[in-house]
Write a structure and sequence with these properties.
Layout: H1 4-7, H2 14-88, E1 97-103, E2 115-121, E3 126-127, H3 130-149
Antiparallel strand pairs: 1-2, 2-3
Length: about 150
């Protein structure tokens, strides 16, 4: 207890009074130092918080740009696939790469299954990649070019 004599009505001597003043000054000094430390930590945390907010905004912008780029590239790939499917529709079932109509499970409009055309790898009985389709077209083109040149 800091001032035990006050509770019992004790008057401090001059020396005790000076000691108490020194103790009180030391306590106020310690409080001021702690307040300065708290202020410095608060400012530091605020600064770090602002840096993190800026970094987060940059990451959000990067994500938006990447998403946009992905969507553009995905559309381009879908468009290229549609073009390739359009060009391969007349291929026979005996060719390595062709077009196959696959039924989807449900039509959202209740009209039964919808047919979806896919590039099809006839020899391996699976959907073909766009790369396989392009390689097939290039091979066919080279063969035709060679035949015409001879």
């Amino acid at each position: 207890m800091l001032f035990p004599f006050i509770a019992i009505g004790f008057s401090p001597s001059k020396k005790e009074s000076e000691d108490l003043k020194k103790e009180l000054v030391a306590i106020y000094k310690q409080i001021a130092e702690l307040e300065e430390q708290l202020k410095a930590k608060t400012e530091s945390l605020h600064s770090k918080s602002m840096e993190l907010e800026i970094a987060l905004q940059e990451l959000e912008n990067l994500q938006k740009n990447l998403t946009l780029d992905f969507n553009v590239k995905n559309y381009e790939l879908q468009d290229a696939t549609r073009e390739l499917i359009g060009g391969l529709k007349g291929n026979s079932k005996r060719s390595r790469i062709g077009v196959k109509s696959l039924k989807t499970l449900d039509d959202p409009h209740g009209k039964g299954g919808l047919a979806v055309e896919e590039l099809w790898h006839n020899k391996e009985n699976r959907i073909a990649s766009l790369k396989e389709g392009v390689e097939y077209i290039i091979k066919q083109w080279k063969t035709e070019k060679k035949r015409v040149m001879d």
